[in-house]
Structure formats: structure tokens, C-alpha cells
Amino acid sequence: MFVTEHDMNGLIVKEHDLPFKFSMMLPAFKGVDPVAAVEGLCNPRGFVLIDEYQRSKKYRNIFAAGVCVAIPPVEVTPVPTGAPKTGYMIESMVTAIVHNIAADLTGQVADAKATWNAICLADMGDTGAAFVALPQIPPRNVNWIKKGKWVHLAKVAFEKYFIYKMKKGTTEPIYEKYVLKAMGIEKLD
Fold first, then answer.
1. Of 121, 183, 176, 118, which is closest to residue 154 (Cα–Cα)?
2. pLDDT per residue over 64-122, tens digit each?
């Protein structure tokens, strides 16, 4: 793999080959060309520009959630990076959208705001990292991270639980909602 290392000013410090047996590289994300081509809908990378209600800033009948949303970087870095989007954060966005569309359809004010809270279990083979960020974009009220083999086991258990919920058609059991609420983790502001 050919690697370019940068200093804090973005200047190239070193270029070299890095030997590897197995690796995964993620290219910079970019929006979908037909959506990016709509004037005023997206930023230069093709991500949808939204207001605090998940609604397009230019087209009030367009809502966006998930990876396609334009979120400014959490911090300035020499090489541009994006903010990660976790499953729970996206659920938060979608919940706000559903409430806001329902409000639009009934002639009420669309005022539901997603919390953008993040919960993540990142599996790394026989270990992993878990984090909770409330909200994901700083400033945060909660910033918690732990690592270890238990995260791998928790991720396996969560995947089984998630598949069970989807097969049953229960996206948010009442006990799950109240356990998360007791921990201060909610989908809507």
C-alpha cells in the first residue's frame, strides 16, 4: 500500500510503501451524482444540506437522513475527514423526519429535532471498542469509550438481538426505549 503522511499543516512529511497481508481502505465518501446535480440541494461533495429538522435548506419537501447528510467535520484536520454516522444516530434522524412529515401532512408545525446521539459497538475480530457520545457532534454532554473482548461478545449478542427484532417486526420494544431513556439516550430533543 502506498502511504502519504502529512504534518499538522497538511504538508507531506513522508511517502512510502507499507507492506500488508490483509487491509481495508475506505475512500472518501461522496454523494450520489443525480442528487448532487440538483442545484442548492447538496454541498460540493454531494451531501444533502439540511436544517435542524432534517429538511433540505432549499426544498422544504425533501428530508434527508443517514450517510447522505452533510455534517461538518468534528474538527479541522490536515487531510479533510467526515464525521461518522452511527446506526442510532440515523434512527434519531429518521424519527425526527417521520414526526415532521406527519406534522406537515396534518397542517401542524414540523418541530421535531433529532438528538444525533451515538451508540456504537465496533467489532475488531476478537476485541472491539464501544462508545456513547451524547450528542455525537461536540460539544458533548457524555463522551464514553471502552475497549476489550467484551465488546466483540456484545456485538455478536446485539446482532442476534437486532435480527430477532427485525424478524418479529418490532423495531423499538418498550423495554429498550425505557432502558435507553434511563441512561439519558433519546432519539428526539
1. 121
2. 999 999 998 777 787 777 777 899 999 999 999 999 999 999 999 999 999 999 999 99
